[in-house]
Design a protein that fits this description.
The chain is mainly alpha-helical. It has 18 helices and nine strands. A three-stranded parallel beta sheet has the order 1-3-2. Strands 4-5-6 form a three-stranded parallel beta sheet. Strands 8-7-9 form a three-stranded antiparallel beta sheet, with no helix packed on it. α6 links the parallel β4 and β5. The longest helix has about 50 residues. About 35% of the residues are buried.
């Protein structure tokens, strides 16, 4: 008589090996039976890796802690032995997940970092002592849960990286603009009191719409193909590794400098290319949009000076570039090692939808006259629009260079 192991269990054990997870069999069966099953599953290679409860009984806890990595199979063990094994692994700094179904498994399930009981054949005591209940009683489900957990963790990091780099970019552009305001006023012959890179409504819009939708959509990113081939993350380390900190800083500076460049390019617009604009009822309106100029002027409207028009164009360019470049940059974040041209941009439909909705909302602001007036956005010259397009897609070029030079990651990711 034989109860053959499930085929999916063998594949799950193989996945665990690649993922840096050690699978250990603890059973009440005879040692010979346990060894035979463990070999079929790929848990054990040499018989020296198997030990019985009797042999374990003669071993002190200190000796077990020193030698616990040598053993992959424990046969004929008691509930007390299971607890000792779990504690020995924990003493070695490992996170232990324990599966079980009987009353005798409950002490070990309770001691383990993650206790997994069987939902179908498991006793009520075992279920109560565990943290997770497997509804299908399948070991492969545990491995699938590990894979899903890694995907979720990766996506949380992506969202954090995207939001922080975007916010750092906003801080950089505002801080640097303050420092160089006297220089900008001198170079472009503009009153420094007029120089303001972004209006409060611009920052509010970017934080509420442009940043939030793509960040939420990153949570649905599919797992990377090699997600189960990398070693487990050290639970003692935080999320801000050297690689993560590097990416947040340089990508934030990148977005900030791109936005500041858009503002400066706007200030440098030749006077013959500047639109004629009129300030009327706390709105700044291009002459092309006014049907009766004389009536507007008679009711308190006034022509805006060229230097003020330059600032308006600079603000509009900075706002547009900051918003749209972040939407482009979110695709860089999906994989910190592989090129965007290898991973593609079509793997996450919800992210595409979020980016599409955010981009459409931005276009609505830029096109609809009433909304343009609220956001103080003038009609931009064709040359400035082409410059905006070039700046918006520049994050892809910059991050691709960093990936090519392998500066985008460190040994600690």
């Amino acid at each position: 008589m034989i109860d053959p192991p499930r085929e999916e269990a063998k594949l799950a054990v193989e996945k665990c090996k690649k993922a840096g997870i050690k699978t250990v069999m603890i059973t009440g069966d005879h040692k010979i039976t346990a060894i035979a099953i463990a070999k079929k599953l790929g848990i054990l290679e040499n018989e020296d890796e198997a030990i019985t409860g009797t042999e374990l009984e003669k071993m002190s806890q200190e000796d077990l802690e020193k030698n616990v990595r040598k053993y992959s199979v424990y046969a004929r063990v008691s509930p007390e032995h299971k607890v000792r094994i779990v504690k020995a692994w924990q003493k070695n700094g490992e996170i232990v997940a324990m599966t079980g179904d009987g009353v005798n498994d409950s002490p070990a399930l309770k001691t383990a970092n993650i206790g997994c009981s069987m939902g179908m054949v498991g006793t009520d005591v075992a279920k109560e002592a565990s943290d997770v209940i497997l509804t299908d009683d399948n070991f492969a489900t545990v491995v699938s849960a590990v894979e899903e957990g890694r995907r979720i963790y990766d996506n949380i990091l992506k969202a954090i990286q995207f939001l922080l780099s975007s916010n750092v970019g906003e801080i950089v552009v505002l801080f640097v603009a303050i420092l160089i305001t006297p220089w900008l006023g001198k170079v472009f012959n503009i009153d420094i009191n007029l120089i303001e890179v972004l209006l409060p409504i611009h920052i509010l819009w970017i934080n509420l719409v442009t940043d939030s939708l793509p960040a939420l959509a990153l949570a649905f990113d599919p797992a990377e193909k090699d997600i189960m081939e990398r070693k487990p993350i050290d639970s003692k380390k935080g999320i801000f590794t050297k690689g993560m900190s590097l990416r947040v800083i340089y990508q934030g500076i990148m977005i900030g400098l791109i936005t500041l460049s858009a503002f400066i390019i706007g200030l440098a617009t030749p006077e013959d290319k500047l639109p004629t604009m009129i300030a009327y009822e706390n709105k700044i309106i291009s002459v092309e949009e006014i049907q009766n100029i004389e009536e507007v002027l008679a009711n308190g409207g006034r022509y805006i000076e060229k230097q003020e028009v330059k600032v308006e164009i600079g603000q509009a360019m900075a706002f547009t570039v900051l918003a749209l470049s972040e939407l482009v940059h979110v695709f860089n974040i999906r994989n910190n090692k592989k090129s965007i041209f290898k991973t593609g941009i079509l793997g996450n439909s919800k992210l595409l939808l979020a980016v599409g909705v955010s981009a459409i909302l931005m276009l609505v602001i830029l096109i609809v006259p009433s909304l343009r007036h609220i956001f103080s956005i003038p009609i931009l010259p064709i040359g400035n629009i082409l410059e905006i397009i070039a700046l918006v897609f520049s994050p892809i070029v910059i991050v691709e260079i960093f990936k090519l030079l392998k500066i985008n990651t460190s040994k600690e990711e």
